Amino acid sequence: MHRLDGKIALVTGAARGIGAGIARAFAAEGARVWVTDIDEQAGAALVAELGAGHRFALLDVGDEQAWTETMDALVAAEGRLDVLINNAGITGLDDGENAHDPEHVTLEEWHRVHRINLDGTFLGCKHAIRAMRPAGTGSIINIS
Q1: What's the helix, strand, coil split of the chain in %, to 5?
Q2: Predicted TM-score (pTM) of this structure
């Protein structure tokens, strides 16, 4: 018996890095993991690695319609959500000549960072609560 047997978990930003590590750990503990990311190829590869019972969903965390569609699909398939791991995030200042230089970042780049890091976390919580309600309980883990 594993600690997460029978639990349904959704991990954002799970195609690689910390998110992929979280997805692997949750799967190893018995959870059915929904790997979500904007990188469909890497996300699908991770689900193939995890094996049967796990799923990939294309999810831009800053897009409320994408959250609605993902949670509708999850609830239709699983009946509920037990754990949300809001892991997706960016610095937005990683590329180019002025990397990590906030003096030269554009307002558009700054808004993109907030759309993903802040709006995405809020939207995840908002839509996870709806998917957790049938069970009357659930856990939300926000990573910053």
Answers
A1: 45, 15, 40
A2: 0.94
